[in-house]
Every structure is written in structure tokens, then in C-alpha cells.
Amino acid sequence: MTDQHLHLQTMGQQHGRRSWAEPWKIKMVEPIRMTTPEERQQALRDAGYNTFLLKSDDVYIDLLTDSGTSAMSDRQWAGMMLGDEAYAGSRNFYRLEAAIRDYYGYKYVVPTHQGRGAEHLISQAVIKPGHTIPGNMYFTTTRLHQELAGGTFVDVIVDEAHDPANPHPFKGNVDLDKLQAVIDRVGAENIPYVSLAGTVNMAGGQPVSMENVRALRTLCDRYGIRIYLDATRMVENAFFIQEREAGYADKPIAAILKEFCSYTDGAWMSAKKDNLVNIGGWLALNHEDVFDQCRNLVVVYEGLHTYGGMAGRDMEALAIGIEEAVQDDHVRSRIGQVRYLGELLQEWDIPIVQPVGGHAIFLDAKRFYPHLAQDVFPAQTLAAELYLDSGVRSMERGIVSAGRDPETGDHRHPKLELTRLTIPRRVYTQAHMDVVAESVKSAYDRREQTRGLRMIYEPKYLRFFQCRFEPI
Ligand code: F0G
Description:
Aspartate Aminotransferase, domain 1; Aspartate Aminotransferase, domain 2; 2 domains; five-stranded mixed sheet; about 40% helix; binds ligand F0G
């Protein structure tokens, strides 16, 4: 050991500091471009102040979403060369099916092109007009497919989830009393399933505890109600159980994931998140009757039941991604990076959703801009301000995303008015996170001069993707 090593080691001991680092190194890079303030002004105007409508060439650090934006590993890229592009019976499908059975534990698998394809199939298969679907907070595409099938979504998440400052460790939990009240009101026969999401996206990436899902299973069994899981970010949920729930500290993420899934009857998946691929999804089920219906519907809407809209090579990369995603050191560094950004912002007293969740930092736009009413879109405004400042792209998760009530046609006014800085997996460095934090700080310093936006174009479905604004 050299003197320098010895010195560093003693320093480490003195400071008691042990940093996490990514369990990979970079083999290939993709250049990104910094723009001028004038270019960003123009680009934002052209995009109607909606970050979804920006060209990615005009974006410097892209935190719009963690969906399909992850970096694949060398093993996954090698897998792409093993694509069996047969129309029927591709060998990659059987690899994918085996991976889902091994790691998630469900019996039957239907591949889809992405998450909403799976949401469509399960909704059409089991929801009848007039049904009620209770769930732990809505997700945009999930709720829309439930509504298009004739159902009504009812939120039964714990109250803490609607309070961005509440530090509850499992803000994704289902409030069983609220669920019981829904069952008493509409009758179990009108509830096709409980829609349960791991790390609840709209609540800030907040987890569900194992204790909660176990109790949910007991309650649902009493009434013969099924539970379907949105497994999109369930691996991240398993990390929080390992970290926070008694009895799980020594269990691997993979074991926790499988135990959690075992309390549910099936799952839909946007594989573009946890599963580390750029495109893909799946539906997995334990009951043969529902599987039969979904396997039949998939050939109508997605593709044959052994590819469901994916190429063979995509299914191979996905099978490998599933295995990589559940490695403890991967998940620890993924969430470690999200927390690093969160800690910087908290040091500067910038209001964010607490505790920091799995996939993103959620800026609390209501506290960021206390002078702006929700009807002038504070979170959308903040996303626009961040882009103007530095070319960092974020996303609105507030009144725009919540859409309109299908009955009254009025804006829904969600309690949470958030701007999401979503971190792609295995893509950006700590230095990128520093740049992002400094840009948020700069928008915060200018907050009092900031006015809101006016909506000037609004499409019928999922308006946040395509609506346009102008500054007030
Ligand atoms: N469920 C959750 C919890 C999601 O976050 C998403 C997508 C979906 C389902 C739908 O999956 O996009 O593959 O069709 N969320 C993305 C996001 C778009 O940015 O949060 P998809």
C-alpha cells in the first residue's frame, strides 16, 4: 500500500464517509448539446410552453421521463443480435416468459408493445360499464383505459400521499378503511379488481409496504376481489421495503419483489422503466380465464401472442434487463443518484416531495410559486422556466396531467401540483445532477418575477402530452 493510499484510507475513516458508486463503467457516449438562451426562448415558444413538444435536439439534460430512456448494458446489446424474428413462436418470447415467471412469479405472460397496451387489454377483459376500480392514486394512462372500458376509478391511497411534506415511509399504501367504504357503497360484485401500483408515480414515487399488500390481500379475499399490480417500478418499491420495513434488511431485492407479487393476481408492466429497455411491456396473470381473454385481445390490438408488438430482439434485451434490474447494487446506485439530487435541493431549502421517491425528484410547485393560482399552471410554468434557464427538460404532474372530470367537464384540481425531474437509469453522471440542481436554484431565486401560463389548445385525451400554452 502506498503512502497516498494509506492517507486516503485514514481520511475515509476519520470522516466515516463511504460513497456509493455505479456498478458499471461507460463504454459508449452520446454527445449532447448546450443551446443559447435565445435558442431556448424560440424552441419553447415553438413548443407552446409544453416540454413534451420540444425537439430532443434542443434539450441539454433530458429529465422528462425515465420511460424508455435508460442505457442498455453490453449484455443487452449483445442480446439484440440474438433476435429470432419469426412471426410465431420466437425463441426470445420463451426467454422473456421464463424471466417473468422467475422474477415476478406469475404463471401466464402476454407481451405488449408498452405499458398502456397491457392496460388496454386487462381493462377491456375485466371491466364492465358501471364498474368501480379502487386504486392507490390514479395514473394518467391507467385511469383512461379503465374509463374507456366503462369503469370509474376511485382513489383509496392513504391521506399522507396527498401531502408533499409528510415524511411517512410508505405513502403509497392503500387506506383499507377507504377501500372498505368503497366496497360497502358499490358492492364487491361491481369491483373487478383493485388497481395497485408499486412506487406510486403521481405521489412522487412513493412505495407500498409488504404489510399493506398482505393486509390488502386478506381484505380482498374476504370479498373475492382480485388485485392487479402496476409493476412498472415495483423493483424500486422492493428497495424501499428492504430499507424501511422490519424483517427485510437482509433479503435480496429479487426475493422481496417475488414475495410482493405473490399477494397479487397479475400485473401489467411498462418495461421501459424498471426493466431497462427502450421499448416493451407485458401483462402477466395467474388465472387462466383472464389470460385466455387477454391472449385473444392481444392479436387484435398489439400483435401475435408471442411478440405483442415487440421485435424478437427487443424481447431478448427485455429478458436480460429483467435480470439486471433486480440486482441489489444496481437498484442502490439508481436510487442513490436520485437522492443525491434531492439532497442538494434540500440543502438550498427548495420545496420537494418528501421522502425522495424511486425514480424522480418532484418539485412542489405550490410552495415554489405560492403567488400562482393552480389555474395558471404553476408546475407547467416551472418546467418551462427550467428549460429556459439551462435546457433541462422536466415534466408537469399537476392540474394539466389530471385532465378534466368526464362527467362535469371541469379541470380536476389535484392536491399535488408537481414538476418532475425524472432520472433515466444508467445515463447521467453526478456532474449532470449538479447542473440540474443549480438550474432549479436559479429558477427559485427568480420565483417572484414568474407569472403563470394560459392554455390555448387542449386535445381530448391525455391532454398534457399535446396541449399548448402562452405566457400570461
Ligand atoms: N403505469 C405507470 C406507473 C407509468 O408510469 C406508466 C408510464 C405507464 C403505466 C404506462 O406505460 O408509457 O409504457 O405505455 N409512465 C411514463 C412516465 C410515460 O413518464 O411516467 P407506457
